[in-house]
Amino acid sequence: MLDNIEFANPQFFWLLLLLPAAVLWYVLTRKREAASLTMPTLDSFKRHSSFLARLKPVLFALRLLALAAIITAMARPQTKDVSTRTKTSKGIDIVMAIDVSSSMLARDLKPNRLMALKEVAAEFIGDRVSDRIGLVVYSGESFTKTPITSDKAIVLAALEEIRYGQLEDGTAIGMGLATSVNRLKESKAKSKVIILLTDGVNNSGFIEPATAAELAVEYGIKTYTIGIGTNGKAETPVAYNLDGSFRYAYRPVEIDEELLTAIAENTGGRYFRATNNESLSEIYDEINKLEKTEVEEFRYTNFEERFRPLALLAGGLFLLEIFLRFTFFRSFV
pTM score, two decimals? Predict the structure, then answer.
């Protein structure tokens, strides 16, 4: 506790310089008060040099200690307790639109694009402590997997459940974006964001991506688009084997980067390209940095005064000096 003590009025410690002066004054005046007598014998002197007489300076010492305690009390010793409280402003509402077409099972990312995305997306969701997040999945059609919610456990559980085969195959980018806009259009959040990921070209759905992007602009929704897939060819599902498993073959990676760039730029977002697991993780880290929720920190400092024990000590020392002066040392005063 001693290392936590501060003094509100430390200038009063200058008064401690008076104590050595008081000691000097006491020594000089005590010498002048000492009587100089000529006696035929030392018997009378010995009687006065009793044990109590030799202890008389204790009275002065008690007074000095009392004065030191008073001066320290005047300096106002106190302990400081600092506490903080954070206040989060209205956070960000985020919808993650995830392509679940068969091409998302391509093995250019490990173990495949969809599994790599789920791993990175889970980390992203865990980092967005103060925000609400929803999930939209799409391929040839789209649906809301999870509406925007602050319950990250629900979102993470829903993310883990995402599998290929839940929807008709295809890549309906416009449908995925339009469904995401629909989830956010009524939001009162300070900022509304869509993160749309795809690995192909829009080839399905009855809503054009440009139309969906216009809706996003109308509702003030920023869209980050991510094209996922290596440059060149990737090992991609092309057919089913007799046992129901996929047959893989190398196929060219086709991503409509021009479309994804236009969607992002028109809505105030950015387009990213993920060619491997590392770049995908870096993209989500970058979006995490770009979309920061404002957190205001309030610091509270509580001071507890500690001068009272010193004041009581000073009073006790003064009373003890007075008591001793007018009782045991009365005949020597």
Answer: 0.65
